[in-house]
Write a structure and sequence with these properties.
eight-stranded antiparallel beta sheet; four-stranded antiparallel beta sheet; 9 helices; globular
Length: 302
């Protein structure tokens, strides 16, 4: 019998080779059997972590809600400890970010990242910024429409949910100019959901032991089933995603100069050049921003 303390991710080799970081696809795992992902263990983990890594809010939010600000805009008024113990009736959504900073959970997450790297690292090297996210939510909870700046393997641990995933290359959801801004300014506004988007979504119905791969920058929203749900997101960035961030950030700066740059992906060698130039600019950005603020203050008081 498989050892429940040893995580295992299982992929179809042909699907992985064809669709990785291009299209969503299902995979299997054994994490729903792991003792560190039971509700009681997650309760203890959430209380052990630095509070800045754990946020919770109402489960019943609209799909159009601001995902980044849901915690402050839709509070429950309930203590975290009570929420975690009574998730079936608390009407809450708990996001545990960076659980890998906990020593015990860090070992589990390290094993998982190692498995993912073993499967795809040869084709997509330069793994960095490995971050886990655990979602514990009440029946019927909604995760609002948003996009992430990481590649993601989402594993369903408990309960059922439907993940609505959209094509990351569909510029009708977010224009090149808007996406360039998101790359340059990580907290810039994300795309606003419109019901018309749904025609382009693929729906992935997950149960424990299943997962769905999210390509980089793929917009999505999630609907829970009628029981408590637990999911684990295995996220990371690679050398290729870092190049895209730098190239798109350079595009953003070019637009601010009044130019109209080629969209990312149109001409790979131009993208590489932009990424290299921005790599020189990026380290001095904070100093430049500080100098601009000082000049503005001097002008205002002159």
């Amino acid at each position: 019998a498989p050892d429940p303390c040893r995580p295992s991710l299982s992929f179809d080799a042909a699907t992985l080779a064809c669709d990785y970081n291009r299209r969503p696809f299902l995979f299997r795992h054994t994490l729903h059997e792991h003792p560190d992902l039971r509700l009681d263990a997650l309760h203890d983990l959430a209380l052990r972590l630095d509070p800045k890594h754990v946020r919770h809010h109402c489960a019943n939010v609209p799909v159009t809600a601001d995902f980044m600000r849901a915690g402050e805009q839709h509070p429950t008024g309930l203590p975290l400890a009570y929420t975690m113990k009574h998730m079936d009736t608390a009407g809450s959504y708990v996001l545990i970010a960076n659980p890998q900073e906990d020593a015990a959970f860090g070992r589990l997450f390290g094993d998982l990242i190692g498995e993912v790297r073993a499967h795809v690292g040869h084709a997509d090297p330069g793994f960095h910024e490995h971050v886990a996210y655990i979602f514990v939510s009440s029946p019927g909870a909604i995760t609002p429409f948003h996009l992430d700046r990481e590649i993601n393997f989402l594993c369903q641990i408990r309960g059922h949910k439907v993940v609505h995933l959209f094509d990351p290359n569909d510029r009708t959801l977010l224009s090149d100019a808007a996406l360039d801004r998101v790359m340059f300014q990580p907290f810039a506004p994300r795309p606003v959901y419109r019901e018309a988007f749904e025609a382009g979504a693929t729906q992935w119905r997950l149960k424990p032991g299943q997962g769905v791969h999210h390509p980089y920058l793929a917009p999505h929203w999630v609907q829970n089933g009628d029981e408590v749900s637990v999911s684990l997101a295995i996220t990371y960035r690679t050398a290729a995603t870092a190049r895209q961030v730098r190239a798109r950030s350079m595009n953003f700066l070019l637009r601010r100069l009044g130019l109209t740059p080629r969209g990312f992906g149109e001409t790979p060698w131009v993208d590489s050049l932009k990424a290299a130039v921005y790599g020189v600019i990026e380290p001095v950005r904070p100093l430049a921003a500080q100098s601009i603020r000082r000049l503005r203050r001097s002008s205002a008081t002159a």
